[in-house]
Amino acid sequence: MSGVRLDHIVKAYGGLQVVHGIDLEVTPGEFVVLVGPSGCGKSTTLRMIAGLEEISDGTLTIDGTVMNSIAPKDRDVAMVFQNYALYPHLNVADNIAFGLRIRKTRKDEIAAAVKEVSGILGLTEYLERRPADLSGGQRQRVAMGRAIVRQPKVFLFDEPLSNLDAKLRTQMRAEIKRLHKRLGATSIYVTHDQVEAMTLADRIVVMNDGRIEQIGSPMDLFLNPANTFVAGFLGSPP
Ligand code: ADP
Ligand code: MG
């Protein structure tokens, strides 16, 4: 298991600073949920951890190693997106295998990994299908399959369930928590859904305008919000 540590992480696009020096320590095995209004910097923060966005200032450490200038593929991190980001021309098996192919993993190892992952996610019957012929929930499972097949230690989720209906969202939420535990992963999960945050999180990080307003357990934040912003966001009276 790996911890993730952000020391005064800053992001600026051109001259415009959007993340203003975030400090956060996620302990190994922890499930941390980032919440906050649209545009507050949640995705940017995840993308910096994944290496999809350059860090303007500060230090990112994963499992004790500084990651600032390590390429995304060499970080032990996988990210699951809201829009699935599946390859439409590849079937389910090849979508899941993609991350292993680009690392030149042996064919028999790839086949074994795809079999295992599709079993875990209930996709065994759909391996030959293209994404267009799957339901929303099945597509999201494929996206998760693609993330877990490399057995990363850190999972980043960017509003992975926002495109699903309420019933499926509840079901997938439980699956994500189960996977997190089963894989012994460290997870950082972005959502704007407070029920999702309250049910999934060991700790919730409330962001606003590129800063952290408060970090605490769901109960802490609900009972002792640091300010009216946090109170408003998590629904308890100020
Ligand atoms: P959230 O995920 O919390 O909705 P984002 O991290 O996507 O917020 O965005 C944070 C801020 O950074 C927003 O003001 C957004 O407009 C800005 N931003 C995001 N990506 C870029 C980019 N590539 N270039 C310029 N500004 C960006
Ligand atoms: Mg976002």
TrEMBL record:
EC top class named in words: hydrolase
EC number: 3.6.3.20
GO MF annotations in UniProt: ABC-type transporter activity; ATP binding; ATP hydrolysis activity
Entry GO CC: ATP-binding cassette (ABC) transporter complex, substrate-binding subunit-containing
GO biological process: carbohydrate transport
Alphabetical UniProt keywords: ATP-binding, Hydrolase, Nucleotide-binding, Transport
Domain ABC transporter: 4-234
Family: Belongs to the ABC transporter superfamily.
Name of the protein in question: sn-glycerol-3-phosphate import ATP-binding protein UgpC
Organism for this UniProt entry: Pseudoruegeria aquimaris
